[in-house]
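From the pipeline queue, job 12 of 40. The input is one protein chain; the requested action is below.

Action: predict structure.
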Amino acid sequence: MALTHNQKAGLDAAISLPAMVFGHVEDQRAQTILRKKDRGIWKSTTWGELGTGVRHIGMGLKAAGFRPGEVACILAETGPTWAMADLGILGAGGISAGLYVTADANTLRAQLRDCACRILFVGNEEQLDKILQIRDDCPQLQRIVIFEAKGLRDFKDPMCETFAAFVERGRDWNATHLGDWEAGIAAIAPDDGAALIYTSGATGAPKGVMLSHRSILFQISNAAALLGQEANDERLAFLPMPHFMERILGFYQSLYSGSISNFVESSETVRENLQEVRPTVMFAPPRIWEQTYFRVAAAANDATSLQRALFRWAMAASRRVADAQRDGREPSLGQRIAAGLGSLLVLQKVRRMIGLDRLRIAGVGGAPVAPELIAWYRALGIELTEFYGLSEAAGLAFVGRTAAGRLPEPDRLAAFGEMKLSPNGEILLRGEHLFSGYWREGAHIPRDDNAGWFATGDKAQIDNGVLRLSGRAADLIVTQSGAQIPPSEIETELAFSPYIADALVVGGDAAPLGCLVLLNYDNVEKWAHAQKIVFAGAAELARAKAVRDLIAAEIDRLNKRLAEPIRGFRLIERRLEPEDPELTPMLKLRRVVVREKYQSLIENMYREG
């Protein structure tokens, strides 16, 4: 059901996220806004049910003495309960901070102390155990609310309570404090703090980014208009909620647009749930799109010779048309007919098989993207909208191409607001979507104001009106010849190999380029079995000469295109799990941590040549 003009105008006039949400609740009460797959069954939540749940959580916070401007945190898996708790915190006038479930106790201790968290929602016993280890070091923490109490039947602790008991108290408080909820939402100012987002820590320690209601509303209203997201769209919610891509570009933007968010059953069922939901909107980092590419490529290799030939013919025909359109040329009639037949007979079925046949808004960002990945999806019939975004901009800052194939206006680099490059190529941003400052040691530290411009720390070039990221300015490698090499560009190309999960390029100070390689162990194991290589465990697989030769060949292929070739490499001889400190919550290598932990391996690489 589409929003009427008057309803849309009312949402745009909202001055806070809760005001926007409850405007929807009033007008769309019976419409579905969330779904969650639970024990094999998709269960729907209407706007009215969402509003009731959010209100009772918010009133539970008020009953617990939580005051406007204070911080409450959520440590749980992505799901409707996380979403409702988040909105309940905001409706109570508080600041909501999401914590990653993969974080260890030390990281959680630092973040809970840093934000002066008063009330913490945890997902289950596993997350509760981590908090119980550190709560004595978090003096501001007063209450822990447990979403899922399975396994905690006999657990008693004066600081802890179940989510059901907390919500029940909120329901009672709501019944005895009539009008308090509405008055509280009306008192929220646009510049009040809303979301505290901790960065993933890919290049250093995570930082708490403070976003106001104004900045988030500016972001989601403009992004939805630019991309064309509407009330009849659907998305799959599967990324970590603390990340801006899921929380703001995903959940908040869908609330604004009236689009349905479908929450996966678990992190292990993403592929299955994607095929069931068949979303029309999807934002994801390159790694997610790469995984789908690898899966299709593997399925094509395992198909019959006829099926494999048909797939390759259809992709080649489609790519010829896509390349012509990209270059501003008119494809020939024969090319258009061949591409149309290939799509009808082959590619439509492939898109349906992977659950992307209805996709019309496809966003990729959060890390550099291999151009070949964009080209492959375009040939498949999916136009990836490449965007540059960051927590400090509450999401999007630059959009390379919209789903309809439109580029931003020629005289505007930014999706909205303003963008320019400094003399040394650093991206500078200005606009209402920018964060108000960082949060440090329980206090809000306003950002440096250079005539409103924010220096992102990211370097880029502008190529025919398109922003080409070069990576973090602090990560640039200066070679002996004086050339500045952005390692992220090389790492992105390496990770496009089906056998490489990630890489970290090192060098500089007269040292040639080298890299540490994290194997895609699933694909390498499959390859090794096909080659009849015997191994026992990840380390033995990584030490096999055939595997080293395989990775050397992948690097040699890339070296042919590099001005400064990679002279040596070493393999990380174990699988890395999401909980390992070497990985960010988005499963990228943490540069600082990896360099420190594997320094001896790097030294060995240069010593042995």
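Job complete. Residues 305-326 form the longest helix (22 residues).
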